[in-house]
Amino acid sequence: MNEIYEEVVEKLKSVKSLSDLDTLKAEYLGRKGKIRKLFGDLKKVDEAKRRELGRKLNELKSALEEAFNKKREELLDQVEPLDPSMPGESWYGVGTLHPIYIVANRILNVLESMGFDIGEGPEVEEEYYNFEMLNIPKYHPARDMQQSLYLNNGKMLRTHTSPFQIRYMLKHKPPLKAATFGRVFRADEFDATHSPVFHQIEGLAVDRNISIGDLKWTLERIVEELFGKDVKVKFLPSYFPFTEPSMEVSVFYKGKWLEMLGCGMIHPKVLENVGINPEEWSGYAFGIGVERFAMVKYEIEDIRMFYENDIRFLEMFKSERWI
Ligand code: PHE
């Protein structure tokens, strides 16, 4: 027994890692280890000696356990040498999706599940798509609704995602259902409720018997996804040159009616512009202000919070579901 003890003490000297330690420990104290085997051999010993040997074997077992524990402590105590070339530990751990993208993803997921084709349009746009084709001719007062930013080459920054409607309908024949998400630009003040850059989700559907009922149903599913099943939704008359009738949707949330988005039935002139016969086809379209949704949902009072990227603000959305 003394020999076994010495043997282990000797072997422990060359152990350098916790996993080597575990291997060695298993060899002696494990279920199939040497000590277990010796306990088994006790059966073969004279009854007179068995008691004495059993006691000694137990002593050996405790001594070995102690030796292994001591070595474990030693290994744990060893300070890792500093390697200054190692990458630093990330201070904030795993990142999080920006609240605008959380809201947008959830809306797009709903639309995708309904069969909407998710596409993209350019941020640098032509007046032709941003205005003319959407039934907003030059000198139309509606152009003032959307203070525009023009580039030197005659192009402009899109003031809304609605030109996507035109581009999509020029490329695809009805029946069709499509949506896009992206940045839009306006020559606006930068204050608590206005930003010269913000995000919209545009959706449109054209088919043989599309009605306001289809539009309402789709928008209600989107609102529900973010504000829950019991939220009250109200459709009010509004005006956009590219939809007729036009509506805005308000949501009753936390005690207030809040205006959330614009929508309507695609204007027959717009359908004609893209070569779709309005006698045969009808469609709806909607434009969602993503900041608006996010501000209401997360009770954010100042739109500028979204763009400052203050880590304390972004960290608040760590546990939000975005899928
Ligand atoms: N483009 C409109 C806006 O930016 C919103 C809208 C989209 C309205 C589609 C009706 C249909 O205000």
Structure, explained:
It is a single chain. The chain folds into two domains: 2-77, no CATH class; 99-320, Bira Bifunctional Protein, Domain 2 (BirA Bifunctional Protein, domain 2, 2-Layer Sandwich). Helix content is 40%, strand content 21%. It has twelve helices and ten strands. Strands 1-5-6-10-9-8-7 form a seven-stranded mixed sheet, sandwiched between helices. A hairpin with a 2-residue loop joins strand 8 (243-253) and strand 9. Helix 5 crosses helix 8. It is elongated, with a radius of gyration of 35 Å. The protein binds phenylalanine. Phenylalanine is lined by residues 160, 162, 240, 243, 262-264, 285-287.
Write the layout of secondary structure elements.
Layout: H1 2-13, H2 18-29, H3 34-41, H4 47-77, H5 99-113, E1 117-119, E2 124-125, H6 127-130, E3 149-150, E4 156-157, H7 163-171, E5 176-185, E6 197-207, H8 212-227, E7 232-240, E8 243-253, E9 256-266, H9 268-273, E10 282-289, H10 290-298, H11 305-308, H12 311-314
Parallel strand pairs: 1-5
Antiparallel strand pairs: 2-4, 3-4, 5-6, 6-10, 7-8, 8-9, 9-10
Helix pairs in contact: 1-4, 2-4, 5-8, 5-10
The structure holds phenylalanine (PHE).
Phenylalanine is lined by residues 160, 162, 240, 243, 262-264, 285-287.
Descriptors for this entry?
single chain, alpha+beta, BirA Bifunctional Protein, domain 2, 2 domains, 3-stranded antiparallel beta sheet, 10 strands, binds phenylalanine
